[in-house]
Amino acid sequence: MKRTLKQILTLVMVISLFMGLGFTASLANLADYGDMPAEDYWSYAALQAAVDNGLMEGDNGLIRPQDSITRAEAATILNRAFGAEMKSTLSFDDVSATDWFYDDVAIAVHMKTFEG
């Protein structure tokens, strides 16, 4: 539980850092996501900043703002935030080399943001 809380807090801090940088080179607009609520939604600004800065891309036209973030998604966002690319070997029983997130989890393990 402590590790999960630490990861979530780190993710929130990273996203909030990018909110203040004022980047305008948006990769997508939140209006392009079919499940994004209106601009007065509590996390709209943070989500827009994450999309603008390439931290989040969504999946199949969805950003899923009300879903819990998975370990794989957190790894991907943190790796993108830090520009990390070096990988470690993995010892997770639930991560296969064919999973879309395999490389991102391996990078997160190398960065020591994840253990396994």
Structure write-up:
The protein has 116 residues and is mostly helical. Helix content is 42%, strand content 0%. The protein is elongated and about 40 Å long. 24% of the residues are buried. About 8% of the residues have low confidence.
Spell out the blueprint of helices and strands.
Elements: H1 2-19, H2 44-52, H3 71-82, H4 102-111
- Strand count: 0
Q: What is the 3D shape?
A: elongated
Low-pLDDT regions: 19-27
Question: Quick one: biggest sheet?
Answer: none
Order of helices and strands: HHHH
DSSP helix fraction: 40-55%
What is the mean pLDDT?
81
Strand content: under 5%
Question: Using only CA atoms, what is the Rg?
Answer: 14 Å
How many alpha or pi helices?
Answer: 4
Terminal residue distance? 15 Å
- Could you say which structural class the secondary elements and strand pairing correspond to? mainly alpha
What are the key terms here?
mainly alpha; 116 residues; 4 helices; single chain
Can you summarize this structure?
With 116 residues, this protein is mostly helical. The protein is built from four helices and no strands. Helix 1 (2-19) crosses helix 3 (71-82).
